[in-house]
Design goal:
The protein has eight helices and nine strands. The protein is of the alpha/beta class. It folds into two domains: 87 residues, no CATH class; 128 residues, no CATH class. The two termini are 31 Å apart.
Length: 261
């Protein structure tokens, strides 16, 4: 799957150096190449560069955009190669020989659930642990604030193949309750102003010695949040949170919020 970004001036889905010269020719890759969802900007360029499938629905590499340019500059041999690569994978995995749903495997499969949990755990990477804040010491935490309505629902996912309806799930709120020591105060703040990067920058500029992080919902952008010795402060979008959790022995945890709008 080709990525969204550009390399050496060409988007990955339209980069013949990456897709054809290196991957298909030098590395002898015989599989099919697909774009990430809507990662193509120009269908003709992508087809010429070596992209075989335009995900999610052929919005760029389609008959309307490609037929006028066959056989030049898009030769029939390039189309044949794409078809050959797609059919090769279809046949090699036996898609034409049997039904793909294996009814012997239960939908709610304990093995699959355990495998998914282990994969999620192994995929967590701690880049920095300033002042050895982690792991949190249960005996030093008096109360926990969980912010955002998504904390009590199934963990949010992306779109496309990652969008699934979970059979069983543990929400962030339930997980925190389960991990916290008995008797700890856990408060859920459902309604809260959306997070904006400029708010963090303005607040952290006033408190440069207090490092931590937060993520803007659905954007993949990370920014810093204030944190010092277990004492977390929130910017002016919700002064009540800052006032409510003013004790240095309290910990403020942030979870995904709903996207603006």
């Amino acid at each position: 799957m080709s990525a969204y970004n550009a390399v050496n001036g060409f988007f990955c889905s339209e980069n013949s150096s990456l897709l054809t010269d290196i991957l298909k020719d030098q590395w002898k890759f015989t599989g099919l190449l697909m774009s990430d969802f809507n990662a193509i900007h120009d269908g003709l360029n992508a087809a010429i560069a070596g992209c075989d499938i335009d995900l999610p629905a052929g919005n760029f590499m389609n008959a309307k955009n490609l037929l006028p340019f066959i056989p030049s500059p898009l030769p029939v041999s390039a189309i044949d190669d794409k078809v050959r690569r797609i059919l090769r994978e279809v046949i090699s995995f036996g898609y034409l020989d049997r039904q793909q749903q294996d009814t012997s495997i239960p939908l709610d499969d304990p093995f699959s659930e355990t495998a998914s949990l282990n994969i999620a755990r192994e995929g967590i990477i701690l880049l920095q642990n300033a002042q050895n804040v982690l792991p949190l010491q249960k005996s030093q935490v008096r109360s926990i604030a969980v912010l955002g309505p998504a904390a009590q629902d199934a963990p949010p996912t992306g779109f496309g193949s990652s969008y699934v309806t979970p059979i069983n799930f543990v929400s962030e709120l339930d997980g925190i309750k389960s991990a916290a020591s008995p008797g700890k105060e856990i408060l859920l703040k459902q309604k809260m102003a959306s997070m904006y990067l400029h708010g963090f920058k303005k607040f952290t500029s006033k408190h440069p010695r207090i490092p931590t992080w937060a993520v803007k919902p659905r954007s993949g952008l990370a920014c810093r949040r204030t944190h010092s010795r277990g004492h977390a402060l929130w910017h002016k979008s919700d002064r009540g949170i800052r006032d409510r959790f003013g004790s240095p022995r309290r910990v403020l945890l942030l979870v995904p919020l709903r996207a603006p709008g």
